[in-house]
Amino acid sequence: MILIGENINIMSKTIGPALRERNPIPIQELAKAEVKAGVDYLDLNIGPARRQGDELMQWVVNVVQEVTNLPLSLDTTNTVAMEAGLKVCKSKALINSISLQPARLEQGLPLAKNYNANMIGLLWGVEGMPRDANERCMLAVDLVYKANEKGIPSDSIWIDPIASPISVEINQVKSCVEFMSMLKDIAPECKSTVGLSNISNGTPAHLRPPLNRTYLIMLMRYGLHSAIVDAFDDELVKIAKGKMPEIVNLVYRVMDGEKPNMASLSPKEVEYVKTVRVLTGESLYSHSWLEI
Ligand code: THG
User: Fold this and answer.
1) What is the pLDDT of residues 34-79, one digit of tens each?
2) Residue 74: its H or E element
3) What mean pLDDT is reported for the chain?
4) Is 9 touching ligand 1 by the criterion CB < 6 Å?
5) Alpha carbon of 158 to those of 78, 128, 269, 291: distances in Å?
6) Which domains are assigned to the chain?
7) How far apart are CA 71 and CA 262, in angstroms?
8) Predicted confidence band of residue 281 (pLDDT cuts 50, 70, 90)
9) How far apart are CA 116 and CA 147, in angstroms?
10) What is the pTM of this model?
11) Ligand 1 centre distance from Cα of residue 6 (Å)
């Protein structure tokens, strides 16, 4: 499993100001810490970057490349900024992202082709967010067809079904997993990714790691290729790197309907079992699900 560290992003209280002030120190410190934590890519999220986005993206790519050789995921909706960043990337970059909105496709696909980059194909359609797994499949097929037509091979496309917060809509949480189980059939050569932390957006801080970790395992079950994650969640990194096979196995069994005897499980195992039930919709989500 490929991990893309999410931590360098414009929304962050330390990184936002550093990006705006062109102060390299906090960004380089964070980049080094993410590398040390064991991620494989660094996501550089500068947001929509309407003002001087091209200069900002180029600056941050160069600043990060001074301290690491890890490949970069360039995260912006501004295609001018995207191209400016691609120009200075030293290793094969990941374009984050290209959605199905016509302008995004028209401007984004040539970048993936011309710069020989990988691209995240975000399943955001002309009408916005897909409503279920079937709509996600239709968007994925459409996106891959259009990218192939422009000469981008399927194995450079990392499909992102768009994870959404559990506090908003459990059906979307389930659809995303269901879609992952279908992707192998509809686009076997494509890779996949997901913005994992989206799932726990809006939930209290201490509840985010259990949701993120459990959801990762549920998606891994269907072959998830990569995920955009909090690099500093040690347990999450361990799960992704295959170092917690017992927990992974337990979550898989609960997904299959097994009802383990809670009294025989460790507190950590109980936490995973309760969380997978919330994420499959079997138990109702509330901020106190772990205590029930
Ligand atoms: N798909 C793709 N790209 C994406 C997303 C996606 N990029 C952005 C986002 N979603 C993934 N990245 C983040 C980054 C930070 C957080 C969530 C997702 C986050 N940050 C904390 C917060 O806002 O509370 C802490 C911020 C901080 O560092 O201070 O939750 O879905 N392709």
Assistant:
1) 999 999 999 999 999 988 999 999 999 999 999 999 999 999 999 9
2) strand 72-75
3) 97
4) yes
5) 19, 19, 31, 37
6) 2-246 (3.20.20.20)
7) 43
8) very high
9) 13
10) 0.97
11) 6
Looking up tokens 């979307």 gives 172
The answer, yes or no, to whether any atom of ligand 1 lies below 6 A from the CB of 120, is yes
Give me ligand 1 centre to Cα 78, in Å: 17
**Nearest to 194, CA basis, from 170, 168, 165, 169:** 165
Residue nearest to atom 31 of ligand 1 (CA): 195
For ligand 1, atom 1: residue with the closest CA: 195
Mean pLDDT on 67-92:
98
- In this predicted structure, the answer to whether residue 128 has a pLDDT above a threshold of 90 is yes
The protein residue with its alpha carbon nearest to ligand 1, atom 16, reads 197
What pLDDT, on a 0 to 100 scale, did the predictor assign at position 289? 85
Which residue type occupies 162? I
Round to whole Å and give the CA distance between 234 and 212. 12
Nearest protein Cα to ligand 1, atom 20: 12
Assess contact for 204 and 287: CB atoms under 8 A. yes
CA of 163 to the centre of ligand 1 (A): 11
Residue 48 is encoded by which pair of tokens?
């929509």
The residue assigned the tokens 């992003």 is 9
Q: List the residue whose alpha carbon is closest to atom 15 of ligand 1.
A: 6
Kindly state the average pLDDT of the residues 213-224: 98
Rounded (5°) CA angle 164-166-171: 75
Q: What is the per-residue pLDDT for 190? A: 98
pLDDT for position 286? 87
